Amino acid sequence: MVEEYGLNKLMFPEEKHLKPEERDKNTPTIPVFMSHEFQREDKKLNKGKRAMILIHASGSSKVGVWSRESCVKENLAMGTMMPYIDAARKEGVAVLVMNPNPKKEVDSGIPIEHN
After folding, report:
1. CB-based contacts of 66, cutoff 8 Å, min separation 6
2. pLDDT per position in the chain (115 positions), as tens?
3. Count of CB atoms within 10 A of residue 77's CB?
4. Rounded distance between C-alpha atoms, residue 70 and residue 38, angstroms
5. Distance CA 53, CA 57 (A)
6. Radius of gyration of the chain (CA)
7. pTM beyond 0.85
8. Domain range annotation of the chain
9. What is the pLDDT of residue 76?
10. From CA 110, how far away is CA 47, in angstroms rounded?
11. What angle do CA 112, 106, 109 make, to 5 degrees?
12. Contact 71, 78 (CB under 8 A)
């Protein structure tokens, strides 16, 4: 997603948004992917613009994948978010791809509890 669609990978929560006591506890982070429009300093540039937020279902699918089964049984266009991201970027629509169900924190391997 980073190379093909020009999305930026950011780890959330960002340290600057954590309370001091949370910074000391190795708070787990998860990756999200977003187009540059979400990171503009001047938010007025986004006025009247469209955005698409993609969130896959719970389960074991990786970020950007709707269904592993659909990828295998059908094709990547059916099983992934790629066609939606491609269409949005061609139309100038900002894109945010969420990752709601990682099992472990990416860098440290800290388990993430899902309530």
Report:
1. 56, 57, 78, 79, 80, 81
2. 788 888 988 877 776 767 776 665 666 677 888 888 877 777 777 777 888 999 887 766 777 888 778 888 888 888 888 999 999 989 889 999 987 766 666 666 666 665 5
3. 12
4. 30
5. 13
6. 16
7. no
8. 2-97
9. 81
10. 38
11. 60
12. yes
The DSSP result for 18-73, as a single string, is S-HHHHTTT---EEEEE-GGGG-S-GGGGTT--EEEE-PPSSSPPTTBS-HHHHHH
Return d(Cα 20, Cα 18) in angstroms, integer.
Answer: 6
Tokens of 111: 């388990």
Label the pairing between strands 30-34 and 8-12. Answer: antiparallel
In contact, 7 and 33? CB cutoff 8 Å: yes
Kindly state the helix (H) or strand (E) to which residue 3 belongs, with its residue range. helix 2-5
